[in-house]
Structures are given as C-alpha cells and as structure tokens.
Amino acid sequence: MTQPYPYPGPPRYGPYQIVPPRYRRLRTPAIVAIALMGLTAVLTALQSVLMWRSYDEVKNFIFLNLTEEEFDTSVRTIAGGGWVVQILGYLMFGTCIAYLLWLWYARENTDFLNSAFAPRPPANPLPPGKGLHRHNAGWLIGAWFCPVLQFWYPLQLVEDVVVASEPLEQPGAARSQRIRALLYAWWASWCGYWVIVMTGLLAALVATIVFFVKLVQSTDDADQSVSFYGLQDVMVQVALWVDIGFTVAALLMVVATAASALLMLQIGQWQQQRATPPPFVPIQDYRPPSFPSYRPLS
Fold this sequence. Notes:
Elements: E1 12-13, E2 16-17, H1 27-53, H2 55-62, H3 68-78, H4 82-113, H5 139-142, H6 153-165, H7 177-220, H8 225-275
Antiparallel strand pairs: 1-2
C-alpha cells in the first residue's frame, strides 16, 4: 500500500499526536562544557597555589607579629586571591549550565536512538523514555541540588545515559571496565571535591569567628590572654589543614574533569555512530539464468 500524498504527519491516537523524539549532535555542547571544566580545574589549582603563598602572612596575622604597615600588607596579600574566587564562581556557574545542557541533549538522544525512528533501530524499539532511565527527565536538574539524593541520583542519571548509548554491535560496552572506571572515578572525585571544600570553608569560618571573639575577650580581660595564646596555635593548624585540604580538592577536580571529559566524548561517539545510517549496499544486477539455445527438431 502506497503512502498518500501529502504525508499526513505522525500518527494520531484519539486526540493525541505522537511526537517523534529528535536527535542533536553532542560535539559542540561537549566541547563548550569540557573547555569550561578545564578552565575551572586550572583556576582551582591556581587558587591552591595562592593559598600556600599566603600561608606565612596568615601565621603572622594569627600571632599578631605585624606592624601597622605589615598588617595592611598582610591583609591585602591574604585577600589578594579574592579575584580568583570570584572568577571561579562564575566559571562554576557557567560550567554547570553547559554540562546540564549537554546531559539533557544526551538523554533526549537516547530516546531517539532506541526508538523505531532511529536509522539503526534496536531489535525491540521502545517508546520514548520507557524502560531506558530510572528517573524522570526533571531529575536531570533537581538531582544536583536535592539534599542527600545528590550523592547518588546524578550518578544513576549519567549511568543510564551511558547504557542507553552503547553501540548495538558491542552489547555490554557500557559496562566494560574502562567505562565503569571513568564513571566512578568522575563521581568519587567530584563528591570528594565538594565534601572537602565545604568542610574546609565551614572549619575556617568557625575558627575565624572564635579567634576574633577570643581576641576581643583577651583585650578586655587579662585572664583570657593565656587561652588566647593557646588558640593561636590551633588557628595555625586549622590554616595548614585548610591549605592541605584545598590542595587535595584541586587534585580531585582535575581527576573529575579528565574522567568526565573522556566519558562525554565516548558517549558522543557512540551516539553519533548509532545515528549514522548504515551504508547503502546496492543490489547486484539481476541476470537471468542461461538456457540452452533453442534448436528446432529435425
């Protein structure tokens, strides 16, 4: 039966129309996201270096071994990395948007590639979004900000995209040791980075507040001076551990960036491979079988 002209469009079931999923190439979103992630990692490492360079000024500030001029210089040196923190915050925001956009496109592509609309449909095509993912599309954004759930929901979302993108010719490729190593290295280092950073910031904030409270009390009451001197040693240890922790966090950020970039490129390659129509194989020219020539009966 031939297709009527003009084409009536996607099939309709009652008052509803089936909208086929669409496919987007991931190359440009991936390049933008990876570039921002790389800049963020580099700036994080630079912030770690600046923190170590200001460590001596922090110690002199804590022990109050400064003249008035040295105090002003020390404050400017300690706060000199403020511009790095501001740029790092902007880069984090931009990286978040770029990565979530890439992840959204990658998930939509899996709906297309596993449906009957794909150039290389699977053996059992699925309706869009059915049986491919453990969570709804709304969790692509909400999972990163929901307390407690943010420690495993994003991992499951990315893992589902990886599994739904694997080549049809290589079943089980998404569960290979290489892919699992990239996936878990990315997630472990990413979570470790934020745990260290948030713990370090909280410890530094609490220690600073306690330090200034004790400083005011020691100036008003001579009996408080002994406890304040003991607090100075504690503050120096806190500053040292904050610098060490942020250095470890910077290394984790580099690992997370490298693992995530490799994973994104692999997913894009798989999806582009599945979105490419199979090569056209021309049918051989038909040649009728040869028959013996006709010879009239004599």
